[in-house]
Amino acid sequence: MSASADHIPARLWWVLAGLTFAWGFNWTAMKLALSEVAPFTFRSMCLGVGSAVLFAVMKAGGHPLGVPKGQWGRLIALSLTAITAWNLLVAYGVSMISSGRAAILAYTMPAWAIPLSVWVLGERLNGRKITGLLLGMAGLALLLGEGVRNLGSAPIGSLLVLCAALMWALATVFQKRYPVAMPVGVYTAWIMLLGGIPIFAGALILDDFGALAEVSPKAWFGVSYNVLIAFAWAHWAWIKLATSLSVTVFSLAMLLTPVIGVLSGVLFLGERPTPMEYAAFGLVIGSLLTVALPARR
Length: 297
Prior knowledge:
Helix content: over 70%
Structural class: mainly alpha
Number of strands: 0
Distance between the termini: 27 Å
Radius of gyration: 18 Å
Shape: globular
Order of helices and strands: HHHHHHHHHHHHH
């Protein structure tokens, strides 16, 4: 794996753009799917089929699919935090609160990840990074807006999504502290498969698969989007960025995703951003610019 960049290299801009849109639109798609498909079944399909697609692509590309000696412990630890915990917490959380609010709460991840990276990894915070963090968190606070008053109406859902953000932060720092010596695509396929095992078991025990016969085409679209875009491709992109950038830069770059989540409501639901949301967009973009380009000497 390459050394961590302290800015976003031009060669990774397309990866960031693709990931931002893939996960930004996914909150709407996930809401559609979870309106008719049980969370364990939904996540089982996402992880099972998504990992199978990645394994097939890696095999076709001639990549070895085996796990090198000494890497199993790291793979399992990352799988449990980044895949098992994140997916279950988000699936149940988003079923209790709106997808837009869930997206914003989930992307409080930098507030957890950046202090952890300073403590665990010894990353240094310069003026640009601190400015980026303050701008980004201010933007998220504005996006959450009036929803802060409504968090009490579904405290469990909000708490679950916040815990998911913490798990994502822990996974991001963990894989920087203990990198896995495998190609990114194979590495991603393995953590999806391993992290899915507890979820597969939960689906077999708790869910009625016969109910899938009643699922509407709209919900199946949400499932398909998650399997092919939000999991098979976007998880590869996430690992690619997270292992190539410093935790601070990666975390701030991810703040564009909830902005796209809000904009998807404009495109597909006819919503109109408020002046407060426009101000939030500006703050988040300003946050990204603080780490997008290399610092001038």
